[in-house]
Design a protein that fits this description.
Radius of gyration: 18 Å
Structural class: alpha/beta
CATH architecture of the largest domain: 4-Layer Sandwich
Number of helices: 9
CATH superfamily of the largest domain: Ribonuclease Z/Hydroxyacylglutathione hydrolase-like
Distance between the termini: 37 Å
CATH topology of the largest domain: Metallo-beta-lactamase, Chain A
Strand order of the largest sheet: 1-2-3-4-5-6
Largest sheet: 6 strands, mixed
Number of domains: 2
Shape: globular
Bound molecules: zinc ion
Number of strands: 14
Strand content: 25-35%
């Protein structure tokens, strides 16, 4: 399987996902049609399906034009977003498994950013939309801290080598925040240096791996002492994981 990130809008990633053989491909989160159609033309496959992680316009803005160009294709998303997701014709629930472009896809319902957010697992990759970013997580627009903490826990239980493909290029800012919470974490320091250099050269910082996320992403590390200490002033002794998570999320909302 080959995954090609397609930069859309300012900092969104759509993805072109191609099996090792065969004429078809999947598109994840087409924010806008033009850059996706360019990438498809360059690579040569036929679009077999569109996978939508959630209904926000910066992830699905290109769905209708892609469908108009590609003909009748499957547009996948969570069943609860049916009325808000343009072109959705393949509603999914948690654990739905389907075949598209010769690939087996598993949908994980991960509410928190929106009520119907979905992550898609394909072979050793997971497409996480605005739920899990490299070194960060999405804002709680429609869900609670409990929802998001539990959704991230499910994603974090995927094997270490799982490649993580998020919906935005937010890595540098996320790692600067992570380094502030855990100034002595050498892995965060090293990754921050590496990512700063990648961004200077205009390179994408995706994918990450789940193993690396568990070691560097503060939202997957709310049981670690430095993270608990960084927010415990406002929470009192022995805060529970969700309270720490909510505090870290609120601190990130204020971080520039
Ligand atoms: Zn979003
Ligand atoms: Zn987004």
């Amino acid at each position: 399987m080959r995954v090609t990130p397609i930069l859309c809008l300012r900092d969104n990633y759509a993805y072109l996902v191609q099996p090792n053989a065969g004429p078809e491909a999947l598109i994840v989160d087409p924010s806008e049609a033009a850059p996706v159609l360019r990438a498809v033309r360059d690579a040569g496959p036929r679009i077999a399906a569109v996978l939508c992680t959630h209904h926000h316009w910066d992830h699905v803005g290109g769905v209708e034009e892609l469908c108009a160009r590609a003909g009748p294709i499957g547009v996948y998303g969570h069943s609860s977003e049916r009325s808000r997701l343009p072109g959705l014709n393949q509603p999914l629930d948690d654990g739905s498994v389907f075949e598209a472009a010769g690939l087996s896809v598993t949908a994980l319902h991960v509410p928190g950013h929106t009520r119907g957010s979905v992550a898609y697992r394909i072979e050793d990759a997971v497409f996480t939309g605005d739920t899990l970013f490299v070194a960060g997580c999405g804002r709680l627009f429609e869900g609670t801290a409990t929802d998001m903490h539990s959704s991230l826990g499910r994603l974090a239980s995927l094997p270490d080598q799982t490649l993580v493909y998020p919906g935005h290029e937010y890595t540098l800012n996320n790692l600067q925040f992570a380094a502030k919470l855990e100034p002595d974490n050498q892995r965060i320091r090293a990754k921050l240096d590496r990512v700063a250099e990648q961004r200077r050269r205009g390179k994408p910082t995706v994918p990450s791996s789940m193993g690396e996320e568990r070691l560097t992403n503060p939202f997957l590390r709310v049981r670690e002492n430095p993270i608990v200490r960084s927010v415990s002033g406002s929470l009192g002794p022995d805060p529970d994981d969700v309270a720490v998570f909510a505090s870290v999320r609120a601190a990130k909302d204020r971080f520039q």
